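User: Run a structure prediction on this.
Assistant: Running it now.
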Amino acid sequence: MKARFLLACAVGSLAWIACEVAGGLLFLAAGLRLWRYEIVPVFQGITSPVVWLLALLLIVPVSTAYDRALNLRARSPRSRTALRLLLLVTFGPVIEVLLNDSVFRALFGSPLYVYTFLPTFGGSGSVLSPLYYATLLVHV
């Protein structure tokens, strides 16, 4: 069971990394920068190994806790998908703002990232953040 959970964490984070890098580079190629990483930036600031670690530690554990709290196994596939999407578009942006402001800015004096397109919360969020988090449904 432990190995399966760790594998799920690895697969979920690798899929997220691939989507973030590919999506970010695609927008850059079209002349639009959506965000820029400030701490250990790679791929023209589109991502950072620091956020890879956060993805590894957060995506599957938070999703699993949410699934268990709402007993999603007992729900229909459509209901499960809708509730997971609700989690992602609601809690994802909240968690990212809290981590960027409360942890990185407070402890390290610099944000992990700054949204450059339609920023909110001083660049810790974006009007498009719920859409970015909706893409996580693919790897949940």
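The chain has a mean pLDDT of 91.
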